[in-house]
Amino acid sequence: MPDYQVLIVEDDAKVASIHRRFVSAHPGFRVSAVAGTSEQAMAVLRRGVPIDLILLDLALPGADGVSVLRDVRRGGGPEVIAVTAARDPKVVRTLLQLGVLDYLVKPFTIERLQQALVHFRDRMRMLASSDLDQSEIDRLCARAEGRMLPKGLHPATLEAVRGALRRSGGEALTSDEVAVRAAVARVTARRYLEYLIAVRQVEYETFSDGPGRPAKIYRWLQLDG
């Protein structure tokens, strides 16, 4: 498979050089261009330079990186990994809504950048398939969803709880049964089940098999296929 072509957009020449070294050291990636301003970045794209991925700093002279991202998205351009020191939830939300593949907070480690590159590579390979099965679609969705999950919830655990319900074949399960099948603690299963109810992927009903507080049973709503 040919190398993925990367555009680095960073106004600090020293930082851009570091990013270039990190990206070039990762197998399967090649830096095709480096831009120091949003105008230079858009000029690279307008020239038709083949670009698969943009490593985009947000704090740029002139128009900022968000403007570049909006232009790229309007044109159906390459994937974007945002690079910024910004931690403001509003900024994070805006970038996620604009479809960034990942969000790296400066200063970040080479391991974190490598993680983002591996995710990009895996995503591109899956999307290049002639057909995707449910597990592959779940992986694609889980990564995107993971950045939006409420604090304390994790994509891998969420998928384990989902899987327990999907594999039940439409049978309703108690939270204790879900916990056993997903190999998580009972309290953890209940927390994730409440989230799945909130996002309308799971329904529940209550029943009573004796004195005491009524129990809940849960059923998966979405059909695979």
Characteristic terms for this protein:
single chain, 225 residues, alpha/beta, Arc Repressor Mutant, subunit A, three-stranded antiparallel sheet, elongated
Mean pLDDT: 84
Share of helix, binned = 40-55%
Say which CATH homologous superfamily of the largest domain is assigned: Response regulator
Instruction: State the distance separating the first and last CA atoms.
Output: 30 Å
> Describe the biggest sheet?
5 strands, parallel
| Adjacency order of strands in the biggest sheet | 2-1-3-4-5
Q: Find the count of extended strands (DSSP E, 2+ residues).
A: 8
Q: What is the approximate shape?
A: elongated
Overall radius of gyration: 22 Å
Order of secondary-structure elements? EHEHEHEHEHHHEHHEE
Q: What are the low-pLDDT stretches, counting only 5+ consecutive residues below 50?
A: none
Q: What's the CATH class label of the largest domain?
A: Alpha Beta
CATH topology-level fold name of the largest domain:
Rossmann fold
Q: Which structural class matches the secondary elements?
A: alpha/beta
Description:
- The relative contact order is 0.08.
- 46% of the residues lie in helices and 19% in strands.
- Helix 2 (38-46) runs parallel beside helix 3 (65-74), helix 7 (155-166) crosses helix 8 (175-182) and helix 7 (155-166) packs across helix 9 (186-198).
- Strand 7 (202-207) and strand 8 (215-220) form a beta hairpin.
- By secondary structure, the protein is an alpha/beta fold.
- The strands form two sheets. Strands 2-1-3-4-5 form a five-stranded parallel β-sheet, sandwiched between helices. A three-stranded antiparallel β-sheet has the order 6-8-7.
